[in-house]
Amino acid sequence: MGGKFFFADADSNYSDAAFVIFGAPFDGTSSFRKGSHQAPDAIRKASYNFETYNFNFDIDLSDIPFHDMGDVEIKEKHNVEQALIDVEKTVSTILKDSKIPIMLGGEHSLTLPCVKASKKKFDDMGVVVLDAHLDLRDEYEGEVNSHACVSRHIIEDVTGRYVSIGIRSGTKDEYSLAKAQDITYYPADLVVENGIAFILNKLNGKLDARHLYLSLDMDAIDPAFAPALGTPEPFGLTDRHVLSLIHELAPRSIGFDLVEIAPQFDSGNTALLGAKLIREFIASAWASRQ
Ligand code: MN
Ligand code: MN
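Above: the input record for the complex with manganese (II) ion. Below: its predicted structure, written as tokens.
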């Protein structure tokens, strides 16, 4: 594990921690705009902007036992298979120690090993992906483990208990596949028109799971709020939609990741929003246990 500084208020040691943050600085398959390998540290830096006190939950982050173990050492910068193995090992260890893993990506392909490791421990688990993109390709630019294929792998290789929220982009083939295989996705327009309560009601009807794995591809959020992304897509969810989803889903989440921020396109606001959403996830999950 490398890393020079840590997420704000992650003052707990590993053994006492209920949540363990780690960075996965890998963007080897990123297609349009690389850069998410810089995101873990950009998010950590941004995390120092905020008060430790969280008004929403009347809780102080400095009282919550969470730990930042630094970055997973990605041994080969361009070898996605190796990166997936390295991440799966880390997540398996954190789950075995009965803690909640929180991954700072990195690109979205890294969610697959998190979900795989989680499924081994929580067989009934459902997966919720927030994303602009269907990510249902079987390969992209010759790479089967591309970020553009991650939902396809989750559904085919891990679990059909899957929904995605915020969708507004895919190929004709991806939309056809989603229809043919009855893959559940809630388009961004559906969220904007009907609100989060409506979506949560649908989601709970579909995913009758006590345990969820929650993956936030930041491009689910409109580029007006989160401009620094690998593949930005207009007409997205607002920051508040995603905040509400995180508040509601965190209490059931056994793992969380936040991926696809590309900090070199940022004036700071995307990393700030990412750091804030992680803090809200931790606060909500912890408050539900008290
Ligand atoms: Mn994605
Ligand atoms: Mn995406």
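Notes for the reader.
The two ends are 31 Å apart (CA to CA).
Residues 131-133, 217, 219, 231 surround manganese (II) ion (ligand 2) (CB under 6 Å).
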